[in-house]
Design a protein that fits this description.
mainly beta, Immunoglobulin-like, 2 domains, four-stranded mixed beta sheet, globular
């Protein structure tokens, strides 16, 4: 009789024990599982006043079209070896495509590692530097670590068609700082694209800067001829904030350049 009772109790508890084991197993997997998407924000930095939709392979990632010199929020997207595309307006025909992550080792030549799960990225649609009238896509990894106390961080990206290498100074009543001496078209100031210093953050590094209202002074690196910025030459940098400032051409005025600001946090 006692044996029968113990047997019955064991059978009664068995579903509960199995359920607990199964739940614990699933919970452990959920905690240890790698993120299932990368976070990407998309920027329309073409000198063409047409809104864009962005895609990974055949999946549209942006929920609404991104206007010229505007950025989407960070959006969940495919990671790894990824083809990123963009379309104009309501069209579903790819205007430009680029494959990222198609190399066995990290390299900035031909496409870096591609979007990484759990990381933040910014992808620019821009005019190609090598093919006139063509478009391209540029990917940067975003290091969103907090700036030091009472400081901000700033990334500078040269996407102004037709201009050579540029320098950037930040000027305020208190100081005049040369931030970058020479930045090539399609690159970020301070970028390291080869050698021992090459890493995910070196493609589009954020520089630590003082806070306050500053004027962007952009000049040609050779000869220091000033570049007149049609808009956006004065910005306010707040403590704890992370910014990207990029240059772009102004539609219907090939000799004009504008500066535009993205806040990342």
């Amino acid at each position: 009789m006692k044996l029968l009772t113990l047997y019955n109790i064991t059978l009664a508890l068995l579903p509960t024990l199995v359920a607990c084991s199964k739940t614990d197993y699933l919970d452990t997997n959920a905690r240890d599982r790698a993120p299932l998407s990368a976070s990407i924000r998309f920027v329309n930095a073409r000198p063409v006043n047409v809104p864009l939709q962005f895609w990974t392979f055949t999946t549209q990632v942006t929920n609404s079209a991104v206007g010229i010199n505007e950025a989407s929020p960070y959006l969940p997207a495919t990671f790894g070896n990824v083809q990123i595309n963009f379309t104009e307006g309501a069209s579903t025909s790819y205007k430009a495509s680029r494959q990222f992550g198609n190399q066995a080792t990290f390299s900035a030549n031909g496409g870096p590692n591609g979007p990484v799960a759990g990381y933040y990225h910014t992808v620019f649609a821009a005019q190609s530097s090598t093919q006139s009238g063509k478009d391209t896509l540029i990917l940067f990894y975003d290091n969103l670590e907090n700036p030091p106390a009472a400081k901000a961080r700033l990334r500078f990206v040269h996407l102004a068609p037709g201009l050579p290498d540029l320098s950037l100074r930040l000027q305020s009543p208190e100081r005049d700082t040369l931030l970058f001496a020479s930045v090539k078209y399609g690159s970020a100031g301070g970028a390291v694209l080869s050698g021992e210093g090459l890493n995910v953050w070196s493609l589009g590094p954020f520089s630590t800067v003082d806070t306050g209202t500053v004027t962007l002074k952009v000049s040609r690196a050779a000869g220091q001829q000033p570049v007149d910025l049609q808009n956006g030459s004065t910005i306010h940098l707040s403590a704890g904030k992370i910014y990207t400032v990029f240059l772009n051409g102004i539609p219907d005025n090939k000799s004009a350049t504008g500066a535009y600001t993205i806040i990342h946090n």
